[in-house]
Amino acid sequence: MNRRPLTVAVVGATGVVGRTMIQVLNEREFPLGELRLLASGRSAGRTVSIDGQTHEIQESSAAAFDRVDIALFSAGADVSRELAPAAAARGATVIDNSSAWRMDTDIPLVVSQVNPGDLEGHEGIIANPNCSTMQLAPILMALRDAVGLERVVVDTYQSVSGTGADALAELEGQLRAHVAGEPKQASVYPHPIAFNALPEIDVFLPNGYTKEEWKVVTENRKILDLPDLRISCTAVRIPVHVSHSEAVHVETREPITPERARELFARVPGVVVQDDPAAHRYPLASEAAGRDEIFVGRIRRDPSIADDRGLALWVVSDNLRKGAATNAVELAEILVARDWVAHASTRGVPRYRGPVPESAGGGTA
Ligand SMILES: NC(=O)c1ccc[n+]([C@@H]2O[C@H](COP(=O)([O-])OP(=O)(O)OC[C@H]3O[C@@H](n4cnc5c(N)ncnc54)[C@H](OP(=O)(O)O)[C@@H]3O)[C@@H](O)[C@H]2O)c1
Questions:
Q1: 140: how many CB neighbours lie within 10 A of its CB?
Q2: Of residues 122, 131, 233, 343, which has the active-site annotation?
Q3: From the alpha carbon of 75, which atom of ligand 1 is closest?
Q4: How does pLDDT run across 144-197, given as a tens digit for each residue?
Q5: How far does CA 247 lie from the centroid of its chain?
Q6: Considering the entire predicted model, what is its pTM?
Q7: Fewer Cβ in 10 A, N or C end of the chain?
Q8: Listed residue (234, 239, 214) closest to 357, CA to CA
Q9: Measured distance CA(318)–CA(242) in Å, rounded
């Protein structure tokens, strides 16, 4: 087992996800040697303080990945497209948080408790799923394995931190403007986010869905290895700081009771069932924030589906932790534990080959 201290780079280290990655790395027993913090040229030379330790930021460049073992990227898709191949060419293994590589047939797209085996054939780039996909896939996995999945409809209620540091500042500014009786300025979002719900996350696609909604569709199909899964999504931004919530309706192949579903979910690592409506106990964004688990509750029969094959659920998780940083670090931990940090070709195993995106029925995305 590979236990030597590793050199880890965090790209986007000044962002909300990058800072959470540093925090999660520090919290866990990761065999960390050197921590190399990278961002844009604007931040070079600045320092960030995490848990009382001060770290200096360097500008991201191909040369910055020399002797890096694992590079955790969260600086947007353009930076990932440019620098992830350069980092991989220098021998680093990239775990990328952006959408740049997720649907690439040669790139594993992995949720730690769902499809860790897909990591084995990586060739230097691994994709971390979208935050809305991340909290849903382990729940769907439990139902897929026990009773089969026919159809999934998910509506998301996504926090502002999912857009990044600028969006958090915009929400704060609008709240202050509201208290002062001034107009609310919006530039990150097309409308004020304070006291609002925006059914527009990422750009619109020709099929009428947003890119965020279509990520939930295509990424779940790839991770769950169900290329024909019937799944639809409406993604909504709401003025919550941290944690995404999801209303999920599932049609299963075989009958299932809410009691059995609770038992199945409780057995999934990292999933916590919170389901006592009489005591007002159900997953809350405010309680999930700062936690690594995925919380599921409000589990009930969906009477609109015959033969006890329908379930309705409420799923909540911290989008910065499990939705981004924690899963990325968990993937790094699996690579270390299974001795898969090096690229597949150097370990003599076949390269990962996933379902082709076209066969996933995505069409326009
Ligand atoms: N927020 C979430 O919940 C979430 C969840 C999953 C995935 N993601 C993904 O993670 C990425 C970052 O998101 P975020 O929310 O952390 O955004 P953010 O708070 O806006 O941070 C962006 C980071 O990217 C860096 N950056 C920007 N341009 C760069 C360049 N040309 N070269 C190097 N670094 C550059 C920034 O550095 P400077 O400070 O120097 O500008 C900053 O560190 C995005 O791809 C996003 O889609 C986010």
A1: 23
A2: 131
A3: 24
A4: 999 999 999 999 999 999 999 999 999 999 999 999 999 999 999 999 999 999
A5: 17
A6: 0.95
A7: N
A8: 214
A9: 6
